[in-house]
Amino acid sequence: MQFTALPEFDREFKKLLKRYRSLEEDLNVLKQVLERSPRGYAPVIVRVSGLGIRTEIYKVKHFRCKALKGKGSRSGIRIVYAYFESEQKVEFAEIYYKEKDDRVCDRERILRYYVGSF
Question: Which of 37, 59, 76, 110 has the smallest C-beta neighbourhood within 10 Å, fewest atoms?
């Protein structure tokens, strides 16, 4: 499985990494899970619907972050990614902390990058 990230994801990740030091290690654990099951499993990972595009977009709702002690998989960190089955590729599109910004995903970003790709 190949893993890439949008430039916006990289910027958001670096910003969160300053506050949550274990984030890089935690993301590596998620990558291991996605290698086995890139479409995830509810309720941990859900497909984002209603975008009107062919690209499969998923949101990780239960992301474990060691730096957020006592929260377990309910850390509040959300990760949105695109899965390209034919290429065996996962592209991270967005990462955010739910308590500061509770939305489904940045639909404009998703549409900007993934309209017409599949």
Answer: 37
- Using alpha carbons only, what angle is made at residue 57 by residues 101 and 59, rounded to the nearest 5 degrees? 40
Question: pTM of the full predicted structure?
Answer: 0.87
Specify the pLDDT at position 73: 53
Which residues of the chain fall short of a pLDDT of 50? 72, 118
Short-list 1, 2, 3, 19, CA closest to 93: 3
Q: What angle do CA 80, 57, 78 make, to 5 degrees?
A: 20
The full set of domain ranges for the chain reads 2-114
Query: pLDDT tens digit string along 51-62?
Result: 889 899 999 988
Q: Beta strands of 1-118 (E only): which ranges? A: 2-5, 45-47, 56-60, 77-84, 89-97
Question: CATH class for domain 2-114?
Answer: alpha beta
